[in-house]
Every structure is written in C-alpha cells, then in structure tokens.
Amino acid sequence: MTALVFLSLLEFTVLITLYFIPSVIASLRKHQDGIAIFLLNLFLGWTVIGWIAALVWSATSVHIKVTEKKYDNNKNALEILKTKFAEGKISEKEYKKRKKILNE
Description:
There is one protein chain. The chain is mainly alpha-helical. The protein folds into two domains: 2-59, no CATH class; 74-103. It has six helices and no strands.
C-alpha cells in the first residue's frame, strides 16, 4: 500500500514538473514576460495548444533593456563625451543626443 502511494506521489510530481516546464524555462532565462507565460501555462496548459504556446513563448528572445550609463558627475561625463567627439569616436548626432540626455 505505501509503495503504491509513493509511486502515485512520484508520478504526480513528474507530471506537475513536465506541465510547468515552459514556466521554468521562462524563469531561468529571466524572460521579461515570465509572469504572463506562467499564467498562460497555469490556466491553458492543459489544452496542449496552450502548453505549446507557453513553451514557444518562453523560448523566444529575451530583450535586455539598455540604459545610458549614469555618471556621478555630469561635468566629468560631458568632458569625456567632448573628448570622444573630438577624437572622432562618436558622430556629431550621437554627441548631441548624449549631451542632451546628460543635461536633463
């Protein structure tokens, strides 16, 4: 009897793990839509189409938000920016764009 209960619990654990594989993948990849993938997986995963959709979604590319580097001292940042522009490492358009961001 206890062996039967153990096997039943083992099967249940394996099935739950397989069911939530899309959510686990999204979590491990730090997917920006991880919560939405989890909810799709939770509520529609049983439809197979919902599970496949969650799996495909969890495997799509993860977009990393790129932000401007913050400087402790805007004056220093402006000097570095001027130097890069003078050396030709950045274009005039890029120089003006970054200068505007630093002056905000």
